[in-house]
Specification:
MgtE N-terminal fold, CBS-domain, 3 domains, three-stranded mixed β-sheet, 6% strand
C-alpha cells in the first residue's frame, strides 16, 4: 500500500485541531479503499482518531480495508466502548477473525460491551475449526419463508437489509430453519407485476451447499465451478447456518495461494505482509526449514565419502555431478508442483494414485531419455585433456544413463510425495520443491556413482 506523505501533514493537522467536520467529510468523500491509502503511514491511534468521527457503518467499511495487523493494533489501542460499537457493525466473519488475533484480555473486556445477540454470534462462529467453511461464513443473510408473497418478501428484505452483506441471493427456510430453497433479487424484481405470487413458486430447490465442517477449499471450488456470488453453509441436518460470499472466496484463494507458495519455497507461515513483518518473524519463518534442508543435504557428504575411491580414479566425474544432480531436483520439483496444484483444484484424488504413478513413470522415462541424449552429447564432446585417459564412449553412456535414471526417479518421487502427504493427513504443499530436491539429490548421487562404478571403474 503506497504511502502518501503529501496528505499525512493535513491529516495530522486535522487530528491535532480536532477538526471533527473535516474528519467526517474525509471519511465519506472517497471509496473506503482510497481512504485507507491516504491514511497509510498514520499510527493506529491516529487512524482511530479519524475513524471515530465517521458514521459507524462507514467507519466499519473503511476499517475492513486495513491489513489485519493494523486492525488488531487499532482494536487493542482504541477506547473499549467505542471499538466495541465498531466491531458490532463489521460482517460477522470479519469480526471473528479480528478478535481471534487480538489479545485475549482485550477481547474479554470487549465482549460484555456488545449486544447479547452479537456476543452469541461471535462465540458460535469462533467454535468452528480454523480453515473450515464454518470459520469463513457470515451469518448476515436474508431469510424468507416459502409462503410469503413477493410484496411480503420485499418488505421483509427491507427490514433485514440494514446489516446484511449481500441481498442478491435470498434464502428460503422453514420454521425449523432448514434450507428449502433460494430465490434471487432479480427474480423478485422481474415478477413485480405479479405481487401476490408466492416465493415457493419462484424458488429453486435443488441447491449446491457446503457443510460447516468441510474444508474451505471445497467452498472455493464450488463457487468457482458454478460462478456463484455466494454459497450457503449448512450443518449435517441441513440447518441454514450462514453463507460464504464471493469476496470472502477471493480472500481465501489468495490466502491459500500465499500459503502454498510459502510451503513450496520451504518458508514457514507469516501473518504479516513482507515489509511490515518484523525481521525476527521473517528469520524464524525461513531458518527452520533451511536448517532442516541443510542438515538433510549433509547426507550427500556421507554418500560422496563412500564413493571417494571412484571419484579419485575417474576425476572427470566431479565435473558432471552438478549437471546430473540438478536434473533430479528440477524434474521432481516440476512433478510436485503439478500434483500439488491438481490436488488443490480437485483434478486428482487419492483414488487416482495408480493413474498418477503410471502417468509419471511414462513421463519420467520420456523426459529422462530426452535429457540423457543431451548429457550423452555433452560428455562425448569432453576435451581429451579433461578426460585424462577415461573412455569417452563409456563416460557418455554413464552420463546418459545416470541423467535418465535420476530424472525418472525425481519425477516419480515428486509426484508421489504430495499424494503421500495427503494420505497421512498433511497439507500436500509441505512436499515443497526444496524438500523434493534435497531428497532426490542424496539418492541421485548414489545412482550416479553406482552407474559410474559399473561402466567406468
Amino acid at each position: 500500500m503506497p504511502t502518501n506523505p503529501i496528505y499525512l501533514p493535513e491529516l495530522r493537522e486535522m487530528i491535532a485541531e480536532n477538526n471533527v467536520e473535516e474528519m467526517y467529510e474525509f471519511c465519506k468523500a472517497l471509496h473506503p479503499a482510497q481512504t485507507v491509502e491516504f491514511m497509510d503511514g498514520l499510527e493506529p491511534v491516529e487512524i482511530w482518531a479519524i475513524l471515530r468521527h465517521a458514521e459507524k457503518p462507514v467507519a466499519a467499511e473503511i476499517f475492513s480495508y486495513f491489513d489485519e495487523d493494523i486492525q488488531v493494533r487499532i482494536v487493542e489501542s482504541a477506547p473499549r466502548d467505542e471499538i466495541a460499537d465498531l466491531i458490532e457493525h463489521l460482517p460477522s466473519d470479519d469480526r471473528v477473525d479480528i478478535l481471534q488475533s487480538t489479545d485475549k484480555d482485550v477481547v474479554a473486556e470487549l465482549m460484555p460491551l456488545m449486544e447479547a445477540e452479537d456476543r452469541s454470534d461471535i462465540q458460535r462462529l469462533s467454535a468452528f475449526a480454523d480453515g473450515t467453511c464454518g470459520a469463513e461464513m457470515t451469518t448476515d443473510f436474508v431469510r424468507l419463508r416459502a409462503n410469503m408473497t413477493i410484496t411480503e418478501a420485499l418488505q421483509e428484505i427491507g427490514r433485514q437489509t440494514e446489516e446484511i452483506e449481500t441481498v442478491y441471493y435470498l434464502y428460503v427456510v422453514n420454521e425449523a430453519d432448514h434450507l428449502v430453497g433460494l430465490v434471487s433479487a432479480k427474480q423478485l424484481l422481474h415478477n413485480l407485476s405479479r405481487p401476490h405470487t408466492l416465493i415457493r413458486d419462484l424458488m429453486k430447490r435443488d441447491l449446491i451447499t457446503v457443510r460447516a465442517d468441510e474444508d474451505r477449499e471445497v467452498a472455493a471450488r464450488e463457487v468457482a465451478k458454478f460462478d456463484f456470488l455466494a454459497i450457503p453453509v449448512v450443518d449435517a441436518n441441513r440447518h441454514m447456518l450462514g453463507i460464504i460470499t464471493h469476496d470472502d472466496i477471493m480472500d481465501m484463494v489468495q490466502d491459500e495461494a500465499t500459503e502454498d507458495a510459502y510451503r513450496m519455497a520451504a518458508i514457514g507461515p507469516m501473518e504479516e505482509s513482507y515489509l511490515n513483518a518484523p525481521f525476527w518473524t521473517i528469520w524464524k519463518s525461513r531458518v527452520m526449514w533451511l536448517s532442516l534442508l541443510f542438515a538433510a543435504e549433509l547426507a550427500t557428504f556421507t554418500v560422496m565419502a563412500h564413493f571417494d575411491a571412484e571419484l579419485s580414479t575417474v576425476k572427470v566425474l566431479a565435473l558432471f555431478i552438478p549437471l546430473v544432480i540438478s536434473t533430479g531436483g528440477n524434474s521432481g520439483s516440476q512433478a510436485a508442483t503439478l500434483i500439488t496444484r491438481a490436488l488443490a483444484l480437485g483434478e486428482v484424488r487419492m483414488r487416482d494414485v495408480l493413474r498418477v504413478l503410471r502417468h509419471e513413470l511414462l513421463m519420467g522415462l520420456a523426459l529422462g531419455v530426452s535429457l540423457g541424449a543431451i548429457g550423452f552429447l555433452r560428455a562425448f564432446l569432453t576435451p581429451d585433456h579433461i578426460l585424462s585417459g577415461t573412455n569417452r564412449s563409456l563416460l557418455s553412456v554413464t552420463i546418459c544413463l545416470t541423467a535418465s535414471l535420476i530424472c525418472l526417479f525425481g519425477t516419480v518421487v515428486g509426484a508421489m510425495l504430495p499424494l503421500g502427504f495427503k494420505r497421512l493427513g498433511f497439507d500436500p504443499g509441505m512436499a515443497s520443491s526444496p524438500f523434493v530436491a534435497t531428497f532426490v539429490d542424496v539418492v541421485g548421487i548414489f545412482i550416479f556413482f553406482t552407474v559410474a562404478r559399473i561402466f567406468l571403474i
